[in-house]
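User: quick one, fold this
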Amino acid sequence: MSSHALEKFPRVRLAQLPTPFTQITAPELGLKLYLKRDDLTGNGLSGNKARKLEFLIADARAQNCATLVTCGAVQSNCARALAVAAAQTHLESYLILTGAVPAEDDGNLLISRLAGAEIEFLTSTDPAERDALLARRTADLAASGRRPYVVPFGGSSEVGALGYVQAAFEMATQLGPDAARFRHIVTPMASGGTYAGLYLGFALAGLPIRPIGAFVCGSATEWVPTLLDLIHGLARLLGVVVAADESDIRLIDARGAGYDQPTPAELDFIARFVRATGVLLDPVYSGKALYALWRYLECGALDDPADVIFLHTGGSFGIFPHRRGLSAALAGLEPHAADVGAAGCLPDAPVAAQAERPATVALHAATAKAASAVHRASRRATPHRSPELRPAQTISIASP
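Assistant:
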């Protein structure tokens, strides 16, 4: 199937595409890696959410909606991107942001306000309370004639995930014959739409590249069914059937001390990486995910670092609320400072989180019997199994 399959879906062009590939080298960290720079999709509308919003806003317009509504954390990249995109497309935006109300506007929150978003805070972070409030406010907006369109958490609906089906085809075109050399693309993950779009997009493009989700919240056990639901729902939207099951899901635990709680080691890694490459990482998503990937690469959990792409999903505005921690990390950047994270191979985590981590370095993957089973996603350790797509006729994605 070609990228023409996406032409039947309405799309509003928002992102600056295609985004470039960059090979970065950070000798101090022993890191050499290819980046797909989706942090460069725009300015205020930067990061991976821009691709999703192209399809979501087009869908909202097709339904004659006038107000975009979403929820997220106080420093939500999706909420900020939605607010900016709404301003660009002359729609209203209503944001429900969870967590402690900040003393002052900063980072993504400040930009959301500048873009004219109407913001309501919910101090509870309980998803059930958040969803209940979202439902009530959506009903209120509808009753007042504001014609709401709900963008789910992270923009991760089947419609939003179309953005990363398109991204997979974009990468296939950019890489050309070199695409076959890559085995994995690692993406930061907090809602799953990017992962689902990449999974199905690369399969449809006939490439052996498979996503690995570096999750910054939740658990492997929770993520597996969520991702499978998104993948199968997206396949139905595109009119194909995909034979994906639990054993196809590849995950890296990038939570560290918890969501939006960067550890000193993570902040130190971010500071060193930016100094070595000039590429900004945020302490909530891209920085945590790349730090976790670096630790796994250091321990040999992936067979060959040269066959890995890291998807930089943006989030640079999230740097500013963590200015104190990053300033402390910068103070420690002396010529003979100790290596980052030299104490071990697994990403840092509080003791309570260690219970569900493997005793040895491994990627989380699921089996049919246990969604939280763990094994290495290595070319030598596990034979590669590509998904089989079945639209009108069977299209088998050959194993390399």
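User: anything notable?
Assistant: The longest strand covers residues 31-37.
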